[in-house]
């Protein structure tokens, strides 16, 4: 890699079964749909066609992202590459909305309110109750986290507060060391990164939507300023 230019490839996981059913997903650990599996394989072929190789990969604790990454690495014949999984790259937690149909929720609360819950920066969806079985404190993946770290609902702002420190303190440092990095995550964890990297305000990020299974690249100069971004 040209040491004056750093390139990072990002991917939102392929379509999940709950994406297909138009349900709020959040931290619910939902698998890929058949379409999502195909999207993941296609994503690998696009990355391979464009000649990208990687030294290190990052993903969340959620299987739809993990299995998308696994498919990509299989297609590019790089399943040996180290993978770091972290809850900090999880999707935004949608609280009590998780598992609800988006259309039905719009009919109940109004389309405007649901759009605010989905796209706004600082508005938090209705929280889960502490004893709700959907709470992450009941999930063995998060047994090592404190109650303060486990959300019952999150705004995009909350998501950003866990994603950006991990970017700055872990991922960015590895990139600057010369590691070629692939990140497979989620619509809102990636939106929080895009907001930070592009220095967008809360109104601008409202309009950003990231498609499933479409790899995109950010290029940075030696001072880690964004100099280019594009879909492959």
Structure description:
The structure is a single chain. This protein has helices at 17-20, 34-49, 63-75, 102-109, 111-119, 156-176, 187-198, 202-206; strands spanning 6-12, 56-59, 83-85, 181-185, 216-220, 226-231. The chain is of the alpha/beta class and 232 residues long. Strands 3-2-4-1-5-6 form a 6-stranded mixed beta sheet. Strand 5 (216-220) and strand 6 form a beta hairpin. The longest helix has 21 residues, at 156-176. The two termini are 18 Å apart.
Number of strands: 6
- Strand pairing plus helix content: what structural class? alpha/beta
Helix residue percentage: 25-40%
Poorly predicted sequence stretches spanning 5 or more consecutive residues: none
Q: What is the residue-averaged pLDDT?
A: 95
Strand content: 5-15%
How many angstroms does the end-to-end distance come to?
Answer: 18 Å
- Physical arrangement of strands within the biggest beta sheet: 3-2-4-1-5-6
* SSE string: EHHEHEHHHEHHEE
Query: Biggest sheet: strands, sense, closure?
Result: 6 strands, mixed
As a whole number of angstroms, the C-alpha radius of gyration is 17 Å
Q: Shape from CA axes? A: globular
How many helices in DSSP terms? Answer: 8
